[in-house]
Write a structure and sequence with these properties.
This protein is an alpha+beta fold and 79 residues long. It has one helix spanning 57-77, and strands at 5-13, 16-21, 24-29, 43-47, 50-55.
């Protein structure tokens, strides 16, 4: 199974971006989105260091809310 995580673009340098999610920053390659006009503040879906899709802030929040609910479930279950 693959997992992609939403990140917010903090800064840009060519085809690379510094992105942040929940206080964690990562360098993300934007080459797969070379036809999109990525700007600071945009949200991207990241898989293994590559942005694979743009998304709205609302979509990113929905994914993070779901991830938080899943984590809370496993915390309660003791898994």
């Amino acid at each position: 199974m693959c997992l992609a995580v939403p990140f917010r673009v903090v800064s840009l340098a060519g085809h690379m971006a510094c992105c942040e999610a929940k206080g964690v920053q990562r360098e993300v390659n934007l080459l797969l989105l070379c036809d999109d006009r990525i700007r600071v503040g945009d949200h991207v879906l990241v898989h293994v260091g590559y942005a694979i899709q743009t998304m709205t802030a609302a979509e990113a929040l929905a994914v993070w809310t779901l991830f938080d609910e899943i984590a809370a479930h496993f915390d309660r279950a003791g898994a």
